[in-house]
Specification:
It is built from 20 helices and nine strands. The protein has helices spanning 14-22, 38-43, 50-55, 59-67, 81-93, 99-112, 123-134, 141-147, 164-170, 185-188, 195-206, 213-229, 249-260, 267-288, 304-310, 325-336, 354-361, 385-398, 418-436, 444-462, and strands at 29-31, 150-157, 177-182, 234-239, 291-296, 298-299, 318-319, 344-348, 373-375.
């Protein structure tokens, strides 16, 4: 029996161990998509205790605790921090087979030097040891980031944001570059109840009137210019339902006007406006060499009762299952027709789409760019061992795994950078297995280049930085 989460955790073969310890383990981290709070980075916040570190905004953990039957007071409510922590410890003790179990223990090992497994029995011991360390200067938010050698991180930001934290951080001596990402979902999803209110907010930020779909494009273009001045290299879109129906500018303007006048829109009309906006934004991204991320198939806020109580992004989302391959192909082709398709990263929350996305990515290429359209890493409900193996296997089968831009955290937790280690170990075990099975030569120079590329170098190059 192997020791619990030792130095060779998840590494079965000699090749995997060599690739991880001599290549992947040494690479920095480029986290091109997360939900970290830039204000906390600017202020260099110091977390008070393990509860604040672990349960402050992580809906992965909240869902697990609800599955254990704990009251909402112990999850997102006003219960004592230590009582919340004990409930979480009991949850983790029962999380066998869940990636949370491994993530939590990697965090305990890498940040705190704690190798004792978390359980109700060990909870007090671990609480005291970790909390004592959290009070030292090595455990401020910035030092937690530097602890895992993060060179770049891209937060998720609305076009109307003033980015004051990012601009202030640019003036400070912080070794990690904190960059904004352009996420215009509230401008795209005109079916949302607060869309008219958001139009006013965006118009004020852009300093221009928004009275049509074309005006919306111009306002977003203005804000994108501002984001570029703050170092933005990537955009992000959450696509739910019909997101592309070809239409003219006049037709998109009619849909916008109908919505602003309180009209009820058909699915086709929603797709017309969204397609018009997204293709125009894609052309802007291409012009400015901004990568476009498309996150598809989240079915959000399924419990309306809990949405009313807690709001969005609190752990009540799941996978969707609508068909979208023809729509996605037509959307990408619309921009590609006049050579205006930006670098694009495709994700689906439903792993059944893996082969489709891997094959779709191969339809659109460009000289000088390795895998211009990427099949993105296993996302959200798929960022576990099984999901990562499935995503990378589909990519290897249907594309070029060696060009893959690798892992991202998609997290609100400053301790979540150990998920990159988890990913890299799985990557090395996957490749190592192919080598030891005689499916690829034991050419360690090339193998290490591939592993270092997927771990870090490919993302640096793809998003426009120098190694």
């Amino acid at each position: 029996m192997k020791p619990f989460m030792d130095a060779d955790f998840l590494l079965q073969t000699d090749t995997a161990k060599t690739l991880y310890h001599e290549a992947a383990e040494k690479m920095p981290i480029f986290d091109y998509h997360n939900h970290l709070n830039p204000q906390e980075i600017l202020e260099d916040r110091q977390m008070e205790n393990l509860t604040r570190v672990w349960l402050g905004g992580d809906h992965y953990k909240w869902r697990a605790m609800r599955a254990m039957g704990f009251s909402e007071d112990l999850i997102t409510g006003n219960a004592d921090d230590y009582d919340k922590y004990l409930a979480f410890a009991e949850t983790i003790e029962n999380a066998i087979g869940n990636p949370l179990y491994h993530w939590i223990h990697l965090e305990l090992q890498r940040y705190f030097g704690i190798t004792t497994p978390l359980s109700r029995a060990t909870a007090k011991e671990l609480w005291d040891e970790a909390n004592a360390k959290l009070q030292t200067k090595e455990f401020t938010v910035r030092n937690l980031i530097l602890n895992q050698h993060v060179s770049h991180l891209c937060t998720t930001d609305d076009p109307a944001d003033d980015l004051h934290c990012h601009l202030a951080l640019q003036k400070e001596d912080f070794a990690c570059r904190v960059l904004p990402s352009f996420r215009p979902d509230r401008a795209v999803h005109l079916e949302k109840p607060d869309f008219p209110e958001y139009v006013e907010k965006l118009a004020a930020a852009a300093g221009r009137t928004i009275a049509s779909a074309e005006d919306m494009v111009h306002a977003l273009s203005c804000r994108l210019d501002f984001f570029l001045s703050a170092g933005c290299v990537v955009s992000d879109h959450s696509l739910e339902g019909c997101f592309y129906v070809p239409c003219t500018a006049a037709e998109a303007n009619d849909v916008f006007e109908n919505r602003m006048n309180g009209g009820v829109l058909t699915e086709k009309e929603l797709g017309m406006y969204k397609g018009f906006l997204l293709t125009n934004l894609g052309r802007l991204y291409h012009k400015h060499n901004i990568a476009m991320q498309l996150h598809i198939k989240a079915l959000r806020n399924n419990s309306k009762r809990m949405f009313r109580a807690l709001g969005a992004d609190t752990g009540f989302d799941s996978m969707n299952d609508f068909a979208f391959a023809p729509m996605l192909g037509a959307f990408l082709n619309d921009m590609d027709e006049d050579d205006a398709l930006p670098k694009t990263v495709l994700y689906s929350l439903n792993p059944g789409d893996n082969p489709m996305l891997a094959s779709m990515a191969g339809n659109f290429a460009a000289p000088g760019i390795r895998s211009k359209v990427q099949f993105g890493t296993a996302w959200w409900f798929n960022d576990h061992k099984t999901g990562m193996i499935a995503q990378m296997t589909s990519l290897a089968n249907l594309g070029l795994l060696a060009n893959f831009v690798g892992m991202l955290t998609d997290s609100r937790s400053f301790l979540s950078y150990t998920r990159h280690e988890y990913f890299r170990r799985i990557l090395c075990e996957l490749i190592g297995g192919w080598v030891e099975n005689g499916e690829y030569p034991a050419d360690y120079k090339t193998l290490k280049e591939i592993v270092c590329g997927i771990s870090y170098n490919n993302a640096v190059d793809y998003f426009g930085f120098d190694l």
